[in-house]
Structure formats: structure tokens, C-alpha cells
Amino acid sequence: MDDLDHRSDEILRILARDGRISNLELAEKVGLSPSACLRRVQDLERRGIITGYRAVLDPAKTGIGFIAYVTVGLSRHTKAAQAEFERLMRAAPQVRECHNVTGTVEYLLRIEARDLAAYKQFHTEYLGAFPFLERLTTLVVMASPKDERG
Q: How many CA atoms lie within 13 A of 108 on its CB side?
């Protein structure tokens, strides 16, 4: 993104906060004509800088009452073990994010479940059943005073 100017940076910041903003309003906020603004947005999309737009959901209103981050350490550090773990995580609807990280563990997961009992079932029957699991640490989200994920 080093080749982006301040207007493109501003467009990206605004769209990250409100992907449904009209082109007219966006153009006004960044000081461009609507046609120039639209061309910039289309260029950012074409270049793959903007990869999509999505709705931000209220977890409580969609039945999600439990959110946790889980660190996962594997007992096998092979490409095959990691590929199998990642395949399982992609298939699990409770796993909203899966990141391969550096440090003392291999993965950081964001888990969303209906409640503690639903998380316990996922933890025991899904994560606990993975054959190369060495350790899990669950960090329960109590509040999110800042969350800028799109």
C-alpha cells in the first residue's frame, strides 16, 4: 500500500468503517468529484486492496452469547498436521477466525458460540478430538470496548 496517496488512504479508512456509504457522500468526505472517487474505489477493488464488503452483525442479536480467543499448540509440527488442523477449523462454524502465529503456540482462534455449554461441547468434542493437540488456552471475552474488525 506504499503507492497509495492520502486520498486513497482516507477512502479506505472510511469504507472500512462504513462500506455502505454512498459514493456521493464518500466523494464529499475525501474532497473529490463523485466520478473521480468512483474511479479510485474501482481501482482499489481491481487491484485487490478492497477485497469485499460485509455486514457487521450484533453477536447477541444473532444468538451468540459467548466469545473466546483460544491459543492452540500442536504436538506435531509437520506441514500435514497443520494442513489438517486448518481444514478442520475452516469447516467449524464456531471458528470465526483462525490465525497461524509465531511464539509458543501455532494458532490463535476466535470462537463464537451460543453459550458456555455450547463452547464446552465444541472444546471437548471438536478441538479435543484433534489427534495432534498438545495444549489449549481459552481467553473469554468479557467486553469489547474497541473492535474495528469488518
A: 7
